[in-house]
Amino acid sequence: MRNFQCLLVTVAFLSMPFSYAATQDLDETDFASTAASGFKVDENNNYADNLALREARKIGLGLGVGGSLGVYGFNIEINFEDADGAVAGIGGGDGYSSFNVLWKHTFLGDTVAPYTTLGYSRWYNSSASGNYKNSPVLSRVLTDQQKEEGKFATDFLSGSIGLQYTTLRGNLAGTSLFAEIVLLGDLDGADLVPTGSVGAGYYF
């Protein structure tokens, strides 16, 4: 009888690591399930909507042509919430450089969703080189003296409305294309300059 009791104790003791491992596996499964449901994404990397992807992937990198950065621009987007984030970018054109800081609000949608931005943009040049005079934006806001000297720093209030296509499913989830209409308000004058931008990006 005593030997039988010792055998039961030994079996129980030896089975403890297996029980613990099973519990850990269950906990990890539950955690993964909870995390996935929190981000509305399944095991195949399929997101329920565009805001679910933005909630799960906080950083976006992109490049664009036109808009508040000039001929070209590179930007980083940080999603503080599923619908709201901050955008910072650098860019320029022939004979000038630029940077911007924007707040972006994205509306709920599927792969295609509208968004708006509002912020500040600065275009500048410290030398007289380049064909900045050919810029349709700068030609409207620079004074004759600035055009002649080639040294300027122009501040804009930038606002836009656009449409963004975001892949929500599969291995390409996170890739994005966008097109927007931009309105630049010259803070040194009273000029409002319409322009536009198209580009692509990826959310990590």
Task: Give your account of this protein's structure.
With 204 residues, this protein is of the alpha+beta class. It folds into 2 domains: 1-39; 50-203, Beta Barrel (Porin). It is built from 4 helices and 8 strands. Strands 1-2-3-4-5-6-7-8 form an 8-stranded antiparallel beta barrel. The protein is elongated.
Could you give a short description of this structure?
The protein is an alpha+beta fold and 204 residues long.
CATH classification, class level of the largest domain: Mainly Beta
Rg, Cα atoms, Å: 27 Å
Quickly count the domains. 2
CATH-defined topology of the largest domain:
Porin
Number of helices: 4
Under the CATH scheme, the architecture of the largest domain is Beta Barrel
**Proportion of β residues?**
35-45%
* Residues in helices, as a percent range: 25-40%
Strand order of the largest sheet: 1-2-3-4-5-6-7-8
Shape from CA axes?
Answer: elongated
**Structural class of the helix and strand makeup?**
alpha+beta
Biggest β-sheet description: 8 strands, antiparallel, barrel
Mean pLDDT: 82
The arrangement of helices and strands along the chain is HHEEEEEHHEEE
- DSSP summary, beta strand count: 8
- For the terminal residues, how far apart are their CA atoms? 63 Å
Low-confidence stretches: 1-37
What order do the helices and strands come in, and which of them pair?
Layout: H1 2-39, H2 50-56, E1 59-66, E2 72-79, E3 84-93, E4 96-106, E5 112-125, H3 138-141, H4 144-149, E6 152-166, E7 175-186, E8 192-203
Antiparallel strand pairs: 1-2, 1-8, 2-3, 3-4, 4-5, 5-6, 6-7, 7-8
